[in-house]
Specification:
It is built from two helices and four strands, in the order βαβαββ. By secondary structure, it is α+β, with helices and mostly antiparallel strands. The protein starts with a strand and ends with a strand.
């Protein structure tokens, strides 16, 4: 299952907290796409994933948006 989390206009640490809360609702193997406007998430969410054993599948930057796709492990 693939879910999307809208974390636009949230500043650190809120995107990471919302990601953590959403991941708790998902099953192993699910994917979560997090859409943010705070560029700090490009470091913060991958670091959170490493600590918590999840896998970053993709990071990309768009126009004023930063998208991270992770797999729940």
């Amino acid at each position: 299952m693939k879910e999307t989390l809208n974390a636009r206009r949230l500043l650190c640490p809120l995107p990471v907290i919302r990601t953590q809360d959403k991941v708790k609702q998902l099953q192993s193997g699910d994917e979560l796409e997090v859409i943010c406007t705070d560029p700090g998430v490009l470091q913060d969410i991958p670091a959170w994933c490493r600590i918590n054993g999840h896998k970053v599948l993709e990071t990309r930057s768009g126009e004023q948006e930063y998208i991270i796709v992770l797999e729940v492990c």
